[in-house]
Amino acid sequence: MVFWQWMGLAVAAAALCMVVRIQQPEMANLCALAAGTMLLIAALESISSLGGILDRLTALGGLQEGYLAILLKVLGISYTAELAAQTCEDMGEGGLSMKVALVGKLCVFSLTAPMLLSLLEMILELVP
Predict the structure, then answer these.
(1) Which of 10, 57, 97, 112 has minimal CB crowding within 10 Å?
(2) Which long-range contacts (CB under 8 A, 24 or more apart) does 89-98 make?
(3) Sign (positive or negative) of CA dihedral 9, 12, 14, 19
(4) CA dihedral sign, ordered 20, 21, 27, 33
């Protein structure tokens, strides 16, 4: 599906959840979760086509493949943590949502810390 169709599905699901929430709040949560899952699957399908493009960018830019792998992991963690946090928020679990976001940020930092250290070492070598 194209972008606009998926956005239409999201708006329709939100309207359906609003109507269902009046009678059965737990079913509204399941409706929102199902719509979110469908949107995530659609996003993953569109992201899978980027693999070849990223490989070409790596080759053209002379980047190490390890850096690209870290970048992709960071993007995956960021988007997944955001989706999980927003889903928790939708379910009325604001505290859990904040903890999910914090764990995502800590995971991103743990992945990027070696790169930051490497960058700092390169800068210190250049400075007399």
Answers:
(1) 57
(2) 90/29, 90/32, 90/33, 90/36, 91/29, 91/33
(3) negative
(4) positive
Instruction: Please tell me the distance from the alpha carbon of residue 10 to that of residue 12, in angstroms, as a whole number.
Output: 5
What are the domain boundaries of the chain?
1-63, 64-128
The reported pTM is: 0.70
Whole-Å CA distances, 59 to 68, 84, 122: 11, 34, 22
CA angle 82-79-86, nearest 5°? 20
Cα dist from 34 to 22, 25, 89, 113, 114, whole Å: 18, 14, 15, 35, 37
Length of the chain (residues): 128
Q: Find, among 79, 76, 99, 75, the residue nearest to 89 by Cα.
A: 99
Q: What is the pLDDT of residues 85-107, one digit of tens each?
A: 988 888 888 899 999 999 999 99
What are the backbone dihedrals phi and psi of residue 24, each rounded to the nearest 5 degrees, phi first? -140, 90
Q: Is 104 exposed, middle or buried (0-12, 13-18, 19+ CB in 10 A)?
A: buried
